Amino acid sequence: MKVVATSRQEQGSGASRRLRRAGQVPGIVYGGSATPANIQIEHNPLWHAMQKEAFHSSILDIEIDGKSEKVLLRDFQTHAYKQQILHIDFQRVDATHKIHVRVPLHFHGEENSPAIKLSGGLISHVITELDITCLPGNLPEFISVDLSGLEAGKSIHVSDIALPEGVTPVSHENPVVVTVVVKGGGAAAEGEEQK
């Protein structure tokens, strides 16, 4: 995805308010060996781009005054009740250095799961994003989680997910990703017998 920005000279809250009134979003690009760059981006195209999941977990091309760089979205602030982006931060990406980013999990196969078909259970998604590290070239847009083999009394942990090549989870623990809630009971813990 591509973002078009221009550099900005004025800084401070007054300058930022003037930019927002003019339909622009103040921002910054930092990281790497270059100095941080203060930028401004047209609000409406940025707002629509940010509605796409991929914008938050992909390497983006940002063009600043005609010069292109690879960046990751790192932070943004929105207005409390208006559909308005107040500020946005991007981090430069080096193709030879690993990055740390949160990637969404996409679940599929739930309708074929024995936990649903045979036990009438409900699948509960404990986490919907995963902290990973990888080289920028290996960054997945999302990570797929297959629920088709999930049985009542079982759960899926991070170690059960097939991660793309070159991608490793940040946590050294093995958190639960999905559990099965059986009607008439609580969450089915691993190894428990169901009545």
Structure summarized in a few sentences:
The protein is mainly beta and 195 residues long. It is built from 4 helices and 13 strands. It has 2 domains: 2-92, Ribosomal Protein L25, Chain P, CATH 2.40.240; 99-181, Beta Complex (RNA Polymerase Alpha Subunit, Chain A, domain 2).
Compile the SSE list and pairings.
Elements lengths: L1 E6 L5 H9 L2 E7 L6 E6 H7 L3 H4 L3 E5 L2 E12 L6 E8 L6 E10 L5 H4 L4 E4 L3 E6 L8 E4 L8 E3 L10 E2 L6 E6 L14
Parallel strand pairs: 1-4, 2-6, 7-10
Antiparallel strand pairs: 1-3, 2-3, 4-5, 5-6, 7-9, 8-13, 9-12, 11-13
Keywords, separated by commas or semicolons:
single chain; 195 residues; Ribosomal Protein L25, Chain P; RNA Polymerase Alpha Subunit, Chain A, domain 2; 2 domains; 6-stranded mixed beta barrel; 4 helices; 12% helix; 41% strand
How does this model look, in words?
The protein is mainly beta. It has two domains: 2-92, Ribosomal Protein L25, Chain P (Beta Barrel); 99-181, Beta Complex (RNA Polymerase Alpha Subunit, Chain A, domain 2), CATH 2.170.120.20. Helices cover 12% and strands 41% of the residues. The chain contains four helices and 13 strands. The protein has helices spanning 13-21, 43-49, 53-56, 114-117, and strands spanning 2-7, 24-30, 37-42, 60-64, 67-78, 85-92, 99-108, 122-125, 129-134, 143-146, 155-157, 168-169, 176-181. The strands form three sheets. Strands 1-3-2-6-5-4 form a six-stranded mixed β-barrel. A four-stranded mixed sheet has the order 10-7-9-12, with no helix packed on it. Strands 8-13-11 form a three-stranded antiparallel sheet, with no helix packed on it.
